[in-house]
Amino acid sequence: MQDAAAAARLPGSGLAWLDAARSEALQAFAARGLPDQRNELWRYTSLRAFAQRGYAAQDPAAATRGVDAAWLQLPGVEGPRLVFVNGVFRADLSSLAALSPGVAVGSLASALRDDPEPLRFLLGGHVADDDDGFTLLNRALAADGVVLKIAAGTVVEAPLHLVHVGVAADAATAWHVRSLIEVGTGASVDIVEHHLGDAATGHFSNIVRDISVREHAHLGWTSVQQASIDATLMRRTHIRLHDDATVDLHALELGGKLARHEVRVEMTGARSRFVSHGAFILHGRQHADAEILVTHRGRDTVSSSVWRGVADGRARGVVHGRILVQPGADGADGSFYNKNLLLSPDAEIDTRPALEIYADEVKANHGATVGQLDEHVLFYLRSRGIPLEQARRILVRAFCLVALDGVQPQALREYCEALLAQQLPEASA
Question: Angle of helix 16-32 relative to helix 133-141, nearest 10 degrees?
């Protein structure tokens, strides 16, 4: 896969600093390869089946493939929209005319063509020790993505809508998307991300994001993942929070054959705050992996994460919540709670909360459970005349709704609630 992609001419080719960075990443990938289960962060996620598949390096027709515009709509999300189809930015499907003053946004491919020098610091860095094989491939082969900058003091009223669409192509295709986002001092913005897939096309999407939230700024991020049932979706999101910055993350993971999201949060600024809510609902042989890795570095920082998992059939889920409090992060307050439901004897969910504390005057706690529906509560509902399957669905739905706490606008939350209800697996007797 990487050999074919390396042969393609990528945006920015010919820039000495970018060519050097890409070459270094490819060499590191050749040495390290894909992560295996000896890597602690990949202990419960096997890539054997993925490694045996072949992918086309790109979809030559991605820029012209038809997509129903109505498919791109989300209730309550009526602001500017950026659409990527099979990894390629589509200006014809996007809507950027209503951008607020102080918002600069465009595609990575265009930025590398028209004004690459401001990206040199972000894209020209050396390989890091914690770069896994997918991150290295993204460093070497990213051909497009989002470049977004919110100017200091800008309050963006309407959510920005970011859509990633996978549609049928001549062959299963791999694409690598790199996004660079900066929320300026005192600015505020909400982003709604939507992953869609129209068929069991088996594409491979590899997304890396670098997000900087400056002093006193706020970022709200809601992710609704409905990738194709045969798709592989790998995401790594780096978030750096400066003094008094806040980030609120909501994630609903529904699609994909293999879907992983690794969220790395660096709370470098004093009094910064990170809150995340998430849920995955898995059917058949789906595999979902959520890695929430929070590092407290500044004083009096606060992180709070609540995640839910549901699996039936032979599905497998993984949840890893790590809170690391570094020396000097006195007054930090971190928590991670994860609860999971197994609705089939063949389903499996592995949960691993972890705390590492190297500072004083710290509050940190975690908890995790894996179980089945409470038979006493089921009996109570059935005694009130509710059929068994309906009672089970009521309980599972209520169990997952915590992932949507705080989602705005209200129309989007109601849509997500309906979507969640549609995706609930049938509980076995």
Answer: 150
The predicted structure's pLDDT at residue 429: 39
Q: How far is CA 182 from the centre of its chain?
A: 17
Write out the residue range of the structural domain in which residue 8 sits: 2-423
Strand order in the sheet with 273-282: 88-89, 81-85, 160-166, 188-197, 218-226, 246-253, 273-282, 302-311, 333-342, 363-371
Give the angle 301-305-308 at the CA atoms, nearest 5°: 175
Q: What angle do CA 343, 346, 352 make, to 5 degrees?
A: 80
Are 239 and 182 in contact by the 8 Å Cβ rule? The answer is no
- Backbone torsions φ then ψ of 276, nearest 5 degrees: -135, 140
pLDDT tens, position by position, 340-372: 999 999 999 999 999 999 999 999 999 998 877
Give me the number of domains the chain comprises: 1
Q: Cα 333 to chain center, whole Å?
A: 24
pTM, to two decimals: 0.94
On whether residue 333 sits in a domain, the answer given is yes
Report yes or no on 90 lying in a domain: yes
What's the mean pLDDT in 399-410? 90
pLDDT tens-place string over residues 160-212: 999 999 999 999 999 999 999 999 999 999 999 999 998 777 999 999 999 99
Residue 208 lies in a domain: yes
**Token pair belonging to 391:** 């009672």
Angstrom distance (rounded) from CA 419 to CA 404: 12
Does any domain span residue 360?
yes
Q: What tokens appear for 83 in the block?
A: 């659409």
